[in-house]
What we know:
single chain, alpha/beta, Rossmann fold, 2 domains, eight-stranded mixed β-sheet, five-stranded parallel β-sheet, binds magnesium ion
Amino acid sequence: MQLVFFTQDPYRAGKVEQAVADQGWGLVTAIAQSRPQEWLRLRTADVIILDLDVPDALGLVERFARSYPAVPLLALAGPDKLVDLQQALLVGAVAFVLFPFDARQLVAAVQGVLRQSGIRVAVGAGKVSSLVAVTGLKGGVGRTTVATNLAVTLATRHPDDVILVEAHGGLSDAALLLNIRPQRTLASLGGELRLDTDVIQGHLKSHSSSLRVLAAPTSLSLRVDIPPETWRSVLVLLKGMASYVIVDTGATPDAVLSEVLMASSDILVLAIPDMPALRASVSLYETLRRDPGINAPLHLVLNREGISGGVSTKSVNNRFGYDVDAVLVDDPSLTMYAANRGEPFVLTHPRALLSRQLGLLADRLALGAGGSEQAAAAAADPTKAGGTSTAPAAKRKGILSLRKQTA
Length: 407
Ligand SMILES: Nc1ncnc2c1ncn2[C@@H]1O[C@H](COP(=O)(O)OP(=O)(O)OP(=O)(O)O)[C@@H](O)[C@H]1O
Ligand SMILES: [Mg+2]
């Protein structure tokens, strides 16, 4: 079941996305779309939700109702648009929902119009888009290596359905690891006045694995600061374009990281076995765990496990009071070989332990937040699949404190 939402407001877009996130419905959002009719002609929709704040909203309701009589249209209106709402119902909207809404109200309204129009909805049976943030508050802990190889692993399993995004202010390391030369990057995206799926699509560079990449700039002269609100819209749009969106992040707890974390459905907090990096990662993990604004499950991932002189996984568990959720072995020759050739090691060396560990992590993410204990245990230690995970439960609701600090 495919929903299409027209709005001017990225905040409302985010709220609609959150509200329907658990329903298994597809959602494509057109934010400030200048040519809504032409845009919709290229897409499929089972239900249209139209925010009455979009320009010429009533005219659009009428035209959509005439052009797509089989597609129910739900009008969304703030308290200042009650008169327009009445009019919208007269010219073609079949139902309405008032903003701000409770998630259940929106879901019930959509289910209501689907029932009226005879479309059957198998709740939870549709495609749910997953946005996985790969984080860590120290440089060089392996975010890009993990994000890139994880994304490629998923792309081989879900062809044309995975996007990798570099949501940081630095240069594109992913372009080097994948040996791609993106013509358009965040640098040109930052200059776009209007954002919609077509614009984002034009900025994605394809890799031979079918992975699509929204890359950071490849030279310092092109570096741009994309505002957090723009990132919010970009992430909402990206989630409508692929089942898996993997986000490589920066090492700074800034407003962009905050947007990424709030949009995430899973968060990997990467640590390496050295005390400063461990302390930073555990502190990030703890901050996010307590933060009522973070909805996504957190996974503490120990990268470079077994590095000479490093802290053991057991000591990490004991000293910090957290069980590591997954380990990734230290394999400097494999990662160096892959980085210098621009070939992801999960493709060139699929049997290497590191590649298999990433495969298990991908399995676990694909299973979703409620993935089986066995898969979780296997991801924690592929040599001991069948054990149990005692990782702390993830938090699910509220406001992001990182956002509060940096806003
Ligand atoms: N499991 C691993 N085994 C050995 N080396 C690794 C492993 N993971 C990453 N590395 C190496 O660590 C270095 C840093 O990795 P990477 O660039 O992925 O980290 P990052 O967190 O993205 O860094 P930055 O702060 O620059 O964004 C690279 O040389 C990479 O090859
Ligand atoms: Mg990096």
